[in-house]
């Protein structure tokens, strides 16, 4: 099956003047502005990374695109049509794989097809195809407790893709993994994206991950969350982390978070347990 329609306009994601505020007792106005003036166009089949420090509204942006919250300012259009609630055309993968422990690998992937208008045979074929896509052939009948964290996250990615969504949203999908597994799954996700050419939006604190995976990096800043700039990553796939051009782009994006004009400087930290496995420039950002 081909994921990407010949009509790429039907897959374009267009965000216009997006703003989001929450009631907040401690805010002077009684409301906290989380997002403000977000304008972002994502052509069909592109991989866009969204990077920023904690509190800049990255995950809130994904929630709005997914349709979990309908109270916002501005517009979110998919294929020129406003999104309305959740829908099969938008899938998501969270940091926590959220597998059901009482279901096998294949059954967990099949959960993504629960409301899909396919026959039982078609569903079985889609599950088998996506098991193979994420490299888990032979583990279809395994239980979540029998597989590693990295394998469980592959199951979550397969579940997010099995519905053939137009857009796959990834909210820190590798944040809970050790550095080596994280690097391997970044390569796997890059391979899957190249094969499927589905539109992907990745939210991450990890600058290197953002540049390695995205062909466009959206740099956000907080208070309220807004786009600081958008960086095109004009590097061929597969990408080489030691390529001078890659390093230059990574450092260019990182410089946004080390700007001495900021009132606060983000801390550069490695993923948990990665002190001996990752070089010091593999940074995540947290205020």
Features:
287 residues, alpha/beta, Rossmann fold, 6-stranded mixed beta sheet, 12 strands, globular, disordered N terminus
Characterise this structure:
- By secondary structure, the chain is of the alpha/beta class.
- The chain has a 6-stranded mixed sheet with strand order 6-7-8-3-9-10, sandwiched between helices.
- It has 7 helices and 12 strands.
- The protein has helices at 58-66, 105-110, 120-133, 149-161, 179-196, 207-213, 244-255, and strands at 13-23, 31-42, 47-51, 73-78, 81-82, 90-93, 167-171, 199-204, 216-221, 226-232, 267-269, 284-286.
The helix content, as a percent range, equals: 25-40%
Strand-pairing-aware structural class:
alpha/beta
- What is the first-to-last residue Cα distance? 44 Å
Order of strands across the main sheet = 6-7-8-3-9-10
In round numbers, the mean pLDDT is 85
SSE run: EEEHEEEHHHEHEHEEHEE
CATH class: Alpha Beta
| Helix count, DSSP H or I runs of 4 or more residues | 7
Q: Strands, helices and their partners?
A:
Blueprint: E1 13-23, E2 31-42, E3 47-51, H1 58-66, E4 73-78, E5 81-82, E6 90-93, H2 105-110, H3 120-133, H4 149-161, E7 167-171, H5 179-196, E8 199-204, H6 207-213, E9 216-221, E10 226-232, H7 244-255, E11 267-269, E12 284-286
Short description:
The chain is an alpha/beta fold and 287 residues long.
């Amino acid at each position: 099956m081909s994921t990407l329609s010949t009509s790429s306009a039907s897959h374009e994601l267009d965000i216009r003047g997006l703003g989001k505020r929450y009631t907040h007792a401690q805010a002077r106005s009684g409301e906290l502005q989380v997002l403000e003036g977000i304008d972002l166009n994502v052509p069909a089949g592109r991989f866009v990374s969204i990077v920023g420090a904690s509190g800049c509204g990255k995950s809130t942006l994904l929630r709005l695109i997914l349709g979990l919250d309908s109270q916002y300012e501005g517009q979110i259009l998919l294929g020129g049509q406003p999104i309305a609630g959740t829908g099969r055309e938008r899938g998501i993968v969270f940091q926590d794989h959220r597998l059901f422990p009482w279901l096998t690998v294949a059954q967990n992937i099949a959960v993504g097809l629960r409301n899909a208008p396919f026959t039982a045979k078609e569903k079985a074929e889609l599950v088998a195809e996506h098991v193979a896509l994420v490299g888990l052939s032979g583990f279809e009948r395994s239980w979540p407790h029998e597989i590693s964290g990295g394998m469980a996250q592959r199951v979550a990615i397969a579940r997010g893709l099995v519905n053939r969504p137009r857009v796959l949203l990834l909210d820190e999908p590798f944040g809970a993994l050790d550095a080596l597994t994280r690097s391997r799954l970044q390569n796997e996700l890059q391979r899957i994206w190249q094969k499927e050419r589905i539109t992907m939006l990745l939210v991450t604190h990890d600058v290197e991950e953002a540049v390695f995976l995205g062909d466009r990096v959206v740099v956000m800043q907080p208070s309220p969350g807004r786009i600081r700039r958008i960086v095109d990553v004009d590097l061929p796939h597969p990408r080489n982390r030691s390529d001078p051009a890659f390093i230059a782009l990574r450092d260019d994006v990182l410089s946004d978070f080390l700007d001495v004009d900021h009132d606060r400087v983000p801390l550069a930290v490695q993923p948990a347990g990665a002190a001996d496995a990752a070089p010091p420039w593999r940074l995540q950002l947290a205020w």
